[in-house]
């Protein structure tokens, strides 16, 4: 079902290192958050940007500080932060897909934001030094403000306008551009992302509902034959990540992403109606629920 691969380049990053980082945090008293971005208006998009969106940026509504801070899916070298002049303005960048990460990405981002607001221009932050005393993200940004996301077709934004990169940097950007999977956020829908994975395209829709409630709604639709976006689509399964479910649909990649907005909108309405039902599941719906659970993949 087009499993997420955090498909942007993370030089030197690997699963063993991430597990080691998280174990070290636990030994230092850190606590893993089951739903780290809960309470933020941008929760679902933050999960998408962290897990499967290749190249995107969004200004962050920081609560304090005079320097603008921009969230990026990934920064050069998969660092946690960097500071530079962008379009004539001192700007701090923080990455949500990083080479080293703790068990709580909310605190990682909060730590990186604090660094980005006070660092010297030209500096970069390899790892956000978050610990149990670091505030949650909701304490350093306006929790009620959604993100204004810009999706990029490549990583050319890594190089500031008017700067001539050295050959090594240019080669890094070229390699990153060659690996990118085209992506688009479906207009008018919260955290519904179209991704071209090669042989097929996918809709990956990060949903805000509690996992159990959403699974019941999906089961009702599946049993009734309505778990689809119509012709050219097929329900593939779902991701479980950061306390949320992400239903995934295989799509006809020959169709433009915008062609899926209306079908996805209609599906969203059906899903909301199914979620509002308090009628006990029928035997067919229970079978559907069990089958759908077997098609989940947990991202760690």
Helices and strands, with pairings:
Blueprint: H1 15-27, H2 43-51, E1 56-59, E2 68-72, E3 81-86, E4 89-95, H3 105-118, E5 124-125, E6 150-151, H4 167-179, E7 183-185, E8 192-196, E9 201-205, H5 211-223, E10 233-241, E11 244-251, H6 261-276, H7 283-293, E12 296-298
Parallel strand pairs: 2-4, 10-12
Antiparallel strand pairs: 1-2, 1-6, 3-4, 3-5, 7-8, 8-9, 9-11, 10-11
Helix pairs in contact: 5-6, 5-7
Protein name: DUF5926 domain-containing protein
Pfam family, one: DUF5926
Biased composition (Basic and acidic residues): 18-28, 284-293
Structural summary, described in words:
It comes from Skermania pinensis. This is DUF5926 domain-containing protein. It holds the Pfam family DUF5926. The protein is about 30% helix and about 20% strand. It is α+β, with helices and mostly antiparallel strands. It has two domains: about 160 residues, no CATH class; about 120 residues, Yope Regulator, Chain: A, CATH 3.30.1460. Strands 5-3-4-2-1-6 form a six-stranded mixed beta sheet, with helices on one face. Strands 7-8-9-11-10-12 form a six-stranded mixed beta sheet, sandwiched between helices. A hairpin with a 2-residue loop joins strand 10 and strand 11. Helix 5 packs across helix 6 and helix 5 crosses helix 7. The longest helix has 16 residues. The N terminus is likely disordered.
């Amino acid at each position: 079902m087009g499993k997420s691969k955090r498909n942007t380049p993370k030089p030197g990053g690997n699963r063993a290192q991430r597990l080691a980082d998280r174990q070290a945090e636990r030994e230092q008293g850190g606590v893993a958050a089951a739903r780290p971005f809960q309470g933020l208006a941008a929760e679902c998009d933050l999960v998408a940007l962290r897990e499967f969106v290749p190249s995107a940026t969004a200004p962050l509504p920081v609560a304090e500080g005079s320097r603008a801070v921009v969230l990026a899916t990934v920064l050069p070298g998969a660092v946690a932060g960097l500071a530079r002049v962008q379009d004539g303005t001192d700007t701090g960048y923080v990455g949500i897909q990083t080479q080293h990460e703790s068990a709580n990405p909310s605190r990682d981002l909060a730590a990186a934001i604090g660094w980005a607001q006070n660092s010297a221009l030209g500096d970069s932050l390899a790892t956000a030094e978050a610990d149990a005393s670091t505030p949650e993200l909701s304490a350093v940004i306006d929790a009620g403000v959604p993100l204004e996301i810009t999706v990029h077709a490549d990583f050319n934004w890594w190089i500031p306008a008017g700067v001539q990169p050295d050959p090594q940097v240019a080669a890094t950007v070229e390699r990153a551009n060659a690996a990118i999977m085209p992506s688009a956020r479906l207009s008018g829908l919260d955290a519904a992302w179209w991704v071209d994975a090669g042989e097929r395209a996918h809709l990956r829709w990060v949903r805000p509902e509690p996992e159990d409630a959403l699974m019941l709604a999906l089961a009702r639709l599946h049993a009734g034959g309505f778990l689809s976006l119509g012709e050219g689509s097929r329900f593939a399964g779902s991701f479980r990540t950061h306390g949320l479910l992400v239903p995934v649909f295989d799509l006809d990649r020959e169709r433009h992403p915008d062609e899926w907005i209306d079908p996805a909108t209609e599906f969203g309405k059906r899903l909301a109606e199914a979620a509002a039902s308090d009628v006990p599941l029928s035997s067919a719906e229970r079978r559907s629920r069990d089958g759908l659970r077997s098609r989940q993949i947990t991202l760690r």
